[in-house]
Write a structure and sequence with these properties.
Elements (H helix, E strand, L loop, with lengths): L3 E5 L6 H10 L4 E7 L2 H8 L4 E6 L1 H11 L6 H13 L4 H25 L9 E5 L4 H8 L8 E6 L1 H4 L12 H4 L5 E4 L2 H15 L6 E3 L20 E6 L8 H10 L5 E6 L5 H9 L6 E7 L3 H10 L4 E4 L8 H8 L4 E4 L4 H4 L5 E4 L5 H12 L3 H18 L2 H13 L2
Parallel strand pairs: 1-2, 1-4, 2-3, 4-5, 5-6, 6-7, 8-9, 8-11, 9-10, 11-12, 12-13
Length: about 400
């Protein structure tokens, strides 16, 4: 069994809080490295076995200056040549190459001056990168000095999807992929993109790849209930940005004049004024709209427990694997969602409807009506199936606990 773990992240994403908790409950010693974040610091303060090594832009810049001499190293020259050959050698690309070198130097300094992992003790350590990016590169290359460490990296759509990362098969990928003991993809959709765009062209191995969902935590006991007053209550939850296509939800519901509908949207963003303007011009007198804006996560869970919700809807044009859908399933809410990203991995016909990537309003309406017209018994079965599917596949208390226990094994 390995007793110590280092978690390294280039940001302070919300999922890291739970990762720290699960790691602290599994390993004897946890070292967490990230930019400073007060909320994460509060979480860490709750554990005597977790140490927080934070850094800032100055630390990273100093590491970059120290790493400049590595530009003449063979593996760096090979990377730069690949960048030129691909036609993607731009200022943005070069900045990313240098940031990878900076992360490597900074991590080496942490290992040498603060963490002090010896070669003899390395078999007791797990190095875990929260992103398949510069931090994974830094940790993977440390295997050259510490061959007995186990190095793991999560992989999200941010690092893999060409629409989000133009350099997905560059940035030393060919160098550090084979050094990792495990690349853990957060969805099958992300893995399939990686296999097509990176593994096959670069002829990389699939032996160190697996799929491990992050899941989400159900904060409250109980489930949401269906409406009992012949109203149809629909909830959406997302940032109000163009890619989420929230206006399509409103326009669909505004056309559904044959039934009383209450639509609640949770979330704020650049499209809020646009949505408010749309709502102010609604023609459907049977449609009630509640725009709650941004609320803290626990209050979303409270909303599901304290209010009837009949359908959760997601009309996004792009997704990773949405936590918002997982949360709805946790409380037994049927889901309608577009066939993008990992949506089809978490929405099944037993408790929801997958619609096309670019649906028209009629298709969205048809999916909503198909659920609403079911018998009470079938709706109840849907709600039960939703919560059971969450419990088996996306309950982070179960799946992440199992994940960290596997990491600790030799």
């Amino acid at each position: 069994m390995r007793s110590n773990i280092i978690i390294f992240s280039h940001n302070t994403h919300s999922f890291l809080k739970n990762e720290i908790i699960y790691a602290a409950n599994t390993f004897k010693k946890v070292i967490f490295i990230s930019p400073y974040n007060e909320e994460l610091k509060e979480t860490i303060n709750g554990f005597s076995n977790v140490e927080y090594l934070s850094y800032n832009s100055i630390t990273l810049r100093n590491s970059l200056l120290k790493s400049i001499k590595k530009v003449t190293n063979k593996y760096v020259l090979i990377e730069l040549f690949e960048g030129i050959r691909s036609g993607l050698f731009t200022k943005s690309y070069l900045k990313r190459v240098l940031s990878f070198l900076a992360f490597q130097k900074m991590f080496d300094d942490f290992l040498e001056k603060k963490i002090k992992v010896s070669k003899e003790d390395s078999k007791n350590w797990v190095f875990y990168s929260a992103w398949y990016y510069g931090t994974a590169f830094a940790m993977a290359l440390s295997k050259k000095k510490l061959p007995d460490i186990k190095v793991i990296s999560l992989a999200h759509s941010f690092e893999i999807d060409r629409e989000k990362n133009l350099y997905t098969n560059l940035l030393f990928r060919k160098l550090y992929h084979p050094l990792l003991d495990q690349v853990s993809f957060i969805s099958r959709n992300v893995f399939e993109m990686y296999k097509t765009d990176v593994v096959n062209p670069l002829k990389l191995t699939l032996e160190n790849i697996n799929i491990n969902y992050l899941g989400t935590k159900k904060l409250l006991k109980g489930k949401s209930v269906a409406s009992a007053d012949n109203k149809l209550r629909i909830v959406s939850c997302s940032h109000l940005v163009p890619i989420k296509r929230i206006d399509m939800i409103f326009r669909t519901l505004d056309d559904m004049t044959g039934i009383e509908i209450v639509w609640t949207h949770i979330g704020d963003g650049t499209e809020m004024e646009k949505v408010k303007k749309l709502v102010s011009s609604k023609k459907n007198s049977k449609l009630q709209v509640n725009l709650l804006g941004s609320i803290e996560n626990k209050k979303i869970h409270e909303f599901y427990i304290n209010n009837p919700v009949d359908i959760f809807i997601n009309t996004s044009a792009s997704e990773g694997i949405p936590v918002t859908i997982m949360e709805a399933l946790a409380y037994g809410i049927p889901v309608v969602a577009t066939d993008v990203g990992g949506n089809s991995e978490i929405v099944k016909s037993d408790f929801g409807k997958i619609i096309s990537k670019n649906p028209n309003l009629s298709e969205i309406e048809e999916a909503i009506i198909s659920i609403n017209n079911l018998s009470i018994e079938k709706k109840d079965n849907m709600r039960l199936s939703a919560s059971e599917f969450y419990q088996s596949n996306f309950n982070s208390d179960k799946i992440r606990k199992d994940f960290f226990e596997i990491l600790s094994a030799d």
